[in-house]
Structures are given as C-alpha cells and as structure tokens.
From TrEMBL, chain A:
The lineage of its organism: Bacteria, Bacillati, Bacillota, Bacilli, Lactobacillales. Lacks the C-terminal regulatory region which is replaced by HisZ. This is ATP phosphoribosyltransferase. Belongs to the ATP phosphoribosyltransferase family. Short subfamily. Its main location: cytoplasm. Keywords: Amino-acid biosynthesis, ATP-binding, Cytoplasm, Glycosyltransferase, Histidine biosynthesis, Nucleotide-binding, Transferase. Pfam families: HisG. Pathway: Amino-acid biosynthesis; L-histidine biosynthesis; L-histidine from 5-phospho-alpha-D-ribose 1-diphosphate: step 1/9. One of its GO terms (molecular function) is ATP phosphoribosyltransferase activity. SUPFAM superfamilies: Periplasmic binding protein-like II (SSF53850). GO terms for biological process: L-histidine biosynthetic process. Residues 52-198 form the ATP phosphoribosyltransferase catalytic domain.
UniProtKB/TrEMBL annotation, chain B:
Coiled coil: none annotated. This is Class II Histidinyl-tRNA synthetase (HisRS)-like catalytic core domain-containing protein. GO terms for molecular function: catalytic activity, acting on a protein; transferase activity. SUPFAM superfamilies: Class II aaRS and biotin synthetases.
Length: 200, 276
C-alpha cells in the first residue's frame, strides 16, 4: 500500500481533473467523495490531505511514500526527498512586484525567504527581507517594503492592490516527490504510479 | 505503555545489545567503545568533518570544538587516523545523535581489502538480522560510490546544483543543467530497477563497477533478500566512501534496518551498521 500526501485546495482540484484526464477514475472518485476527511483510502493507495507546505515534511519523515506539491514549496524547503517528475498543473511563477519599477529593491517582503535571499545574492544586491505569512501584497502597498517576492498566476491580486510585476523569475508547477528510502523499498509500486502519472 | 511493559522493553533493548556484542565477540571480533562526545581542533577540520557539522550537535569549549557522535564509522575513521588499531575486525554498539533524534547503532567493521573477508562480514550481519532479530529482509540497494565519477566531469561533480538534482533524482532540472544528451540523463530516463541493465548494455567502460556490484548482489540473493536493486546514481556522503555501498530494508519499512559499505581511510575497510 502506497501513501501519498496531497495539498488541499486548488491543487487538489487540479489533481482530480488530471486523474480524470488520465482515466485514473478510481482515485479521482475517492478524492471527489471527501468532505472534511484528511485521510482517504482506495484498495491500492492511501491519500493524506495536508497543507501544501507540509507535503515535503510528511514525505521526508516517511509517513507518506509519495507527495504532490508545488515546486515553489520545494525551492523554499531544503528537504531530503526525491523530486521525481513534473505534473501539468499548478502553473505560476515567482516574481518581484512593486508599485513602480526601481533599479534596486532594498527591502522585500515575502513568504519565500530562502528563494528571495538566493535571488538577490545571485544579482549581487544586498536586501533586507521581511518574512510574512500571508497578505504579502499589503507590505508594498503601504510602503513597509519596496517590493514583494511572491508567486504570480494571473496577476489579478497584484493589480487589485496597486502593484505590478517587475521581474519575472522561475516557473512553478506541481511535482511528484518521494521519500528517499521508499523509492527503493517500494520501487515497483512507485514506478507504476510514476508511469501512470507521467505526462504523455 | 505501563511501567511493567516499559521495564520489559528497556530490558529487551539492553539484552539485545549485549547479545549482539557477545555473539560477534564469539565470532572473533574485538569489541570497541568510544566516547559519544568527539573533540575537534578548529585548525584541523577536514572537508568531511565540515560536511557533517550541519547535522551534528556541537559546541565550543576552551578553544576546542566538541560534537556528539552522529555516525559510528565516521567516529572510528577519525580514531584510526589518530591511533593504532591492531584488530582486523571489530564490533561496536552505542548511541548516535542527529540534530533531533537519537538512535542506537550496532555495527561491524573489518580492515582489509580482501573481498572474501569483507563479504563474510555482510553475510554474518545478514544472518544475525534474520536469526537473532527474526527480521525478514525484503529489499537491498547496492550502489557504487565511484560510478558517477566516470560519467561526470570534475566540474559537474563539484557543482552544488548538479549534485542536488542527482541526489533528488530530478531528471527535468538536471537535463536543463547538463544537457538532454548527457549519459547521466540517458541513464535517469530508465526506471531505477532497469538502470543496472542499461549500464551493462550501453556503458561497457563501467564493466568493473557492475561486476563488483554483481558480486555483492549475488550474496544478498543467496541470503534470500526478495528484491536487490542496483542504484547507479549514488553520490558518497563522505570522501572516504570509495566502493560498494549497501542498504538493507525490512518489510514495509522506509528506513533501512542496516547500511554500510567499503571505505578507505587510511586503508581499505568495510563496515555495516544496524539502526535500532
């Protein structure tokens, strides 16, 4: 039996759609039937429904053999996991957004402190990073920060808060990840799932 | 757990440890015990010492750096650099600490380049796991720590991102980094269980590595381990791991019950440790 950690919310809906497209209706039916449950089981797989940022934790600890989460989460967390294949949903990208274009952004608010530090190190600019847990746009809107580093899908939220994308950075999408040891200990089952989920 | 069952569990663990040491002492192993607190000189820290420090509890006192033992083989390697150890084969037991966990390791080491003597140690450990601990081994993973050195350039091997993508088996990202036609990318496009066969067929210059892996694989097959995989993408965690590396798994467990391998520091050796 394989255990897979999934993130709740929009990514789960996208995953169910993808399962239907791949004719994996047994799994999608099980996932569609959930209301408030956090664990759901079919005859071959157990799904754990967790917060997206926690998916790599469950996988690294071996509680889940596999997980699906955004590459933004994996960029930020340096977890000991296998980062196996791309999945065709959850598309967005990292971006620096601000009220107006500036040559430098000395103060940046973000949830993604490691990614932000790496980016500013790579362009050799000093930066003060303010870590926030949510509503990051507000920091630039009220001038607490010169810019924000966030993930952008359509840009609507930025626009509604008087911000616009200034620097487009790494693309993001969903990734299938595995526990390092389960990758071998349950190799047959994991390889079957990789083959089932792999993009055509 | 009530106090009676807790006491039984503690007694069982202590008895198990003694049984391990008695058993292997009876088979001719010298026993060794080392302090769980290791002392380092700041000016003499090796690349390996530095690499492990992120994962260790450490502190400074009177100009020296101290750290809790995180791996027995690593501690013994350092001991052998400093002191003479006459024994050809040793057994040990004791705690190891990571930043957030404590485990008990029971292990065996032999200081010889004689492959028959090295494989005998593996057989004895497998027997002990099966007969004394009554654990069935379902999966073994065998890798060769120098195999990737022949497929990657020195620059690629030293590149942090390249190493990260290989460790994470992230073929997509690695292909962007080193090119879609790189032999490692070709290798990674095959399922893990088929990679050894791919190397055998398409990379004849790696014949020696594969033959060495086959030898150790045959021992584990003889010992009735259900699945034995060859891992072609292993990157050694310490520079002294220069040959075969082995991980043994019991049914439905994702952490290996035992792991070990060949190393060279300062002379050829083989060691395998049980994680309890």
């Amino acid at each position: 039996m394989i255990t897979m950690a999934l993130s709740k919310g929009r990514q789960l809906k996208d995953f169910i759609q993808y399962l239907d497209k791949k004719d994996l209706t047994n799994w999608s039916a099980a996932l569609k039937s959930i209301s408030r449950e956090l664990v759901i089981e079919t005859d071959s797989i157990r799904f754990l429904l967790v917060k997206g940022e926690d998916v790599p934790v469950y996988v690294e600890e071996g509680v889940a053999d596999l997980g699906i989460t955004g590459s933004d989460v994996l960029f930020e967390q340096n977890r000991q996991i296998n980062n196996l294949i791309d999945l065709p949903f959850g598309y967005c990208h990292f971006a620096i957004a601000a009220k107006k274009n500036q040559e430098t952004y000395p103060v940046v608010a973000t949830k993604y402190i490691n990614f932000t530090q790496n980016y500013f190190d790579s362009v050799k600019q000093p930066v003060k990073i303010i870590q926030l847990k949510g509503s990051v746009e507000l920091a630039a809107t009220i001038d607490m920060a010169d810019a924000i580093m966030d993930i952008v899908q359509t840009g609507t939220t930025l626009k509604e808060n008087g911000l616009s994308e200034q620097v487009k950075l790494d693309e993001i999408n969903a990734r299938l990840i595995s526990n390092k040891h389960a990758y071998f200990a349950k190799n047959d089952e994991i390889q079957t799932i990789i083959n089932q989920l792999r993009m055509d | 757990m009530n106090s009676t069952s807790l006491s039984k569990s503690i007694l069982h663990q202590k008895h198990q440890e003694l049984d391990f040491l008695h058993h292997f002492h009876g088979l001719g192993y010298d026993l060794i015990d080392l302090s769980a607190i290791e002392q380092f000189d700041w000016t003499k820290l090796s690349e390996d010492d530095l690499g492990l420090m992120n994962e260790r509890h450490k502190w400074q006192h009177e100009g020296f750096l101290f750290a809790l033992r995180s791996d027995w083989t690593n501690a013994i390697v350092r001991y052998r650099k400093k002191y003479q150890l006459d024994a050809e084969k040793i057994a040990y037991s004791g705690p190891v600490y990571t930043l957030n966990s404590e485990k008990h390791q029971y292990g065996l080491e032999t200081y010889t380049s004689d492959i028959d003597k090295q494989t005998k140690i593996l057989k004895q450990m497998v027997h002990y796991i099966k007969e004394h601990l009554s654990i069935t081994l379902s999966v073994a993973v065998i890798s060769h720590n120098t195999l990737l050195k022949t497929l990657l350039s020195e620059k690629e091997l030293a590149d942090e991102l390249t190493r990260k993508f290989i460790k994470e088996r992230n073929r997509d990202a690695l292909a962007i980094k080193i090119g879609e036609k790189h032999p490692v990318i070709e290798l990674m496009s095959h399922p893990a269980a088929e990679q050894a066969n791919y190397v055998k067929e398409h990379m004849p210059h790696l014949k020696r590595h594969i033959e060495e892996m086959n030898l150790w694989e045959s021992i584990l097959i003889e010992e009735n381990v259900s699945y034995v995989y060859g891992d072609m993408l292993a990157l050694p965690s310490q520079t002294y791991y220069k040959g075969i590396s082995i991980q043994l798994y019991s049914e439905d467990k994702v952490e290996p019950i035992a792991s070990g391998g060949q190393y060279s520091s300062p002379t050829n050796a083989f060691g395998i440790g049980l994680n309890i």
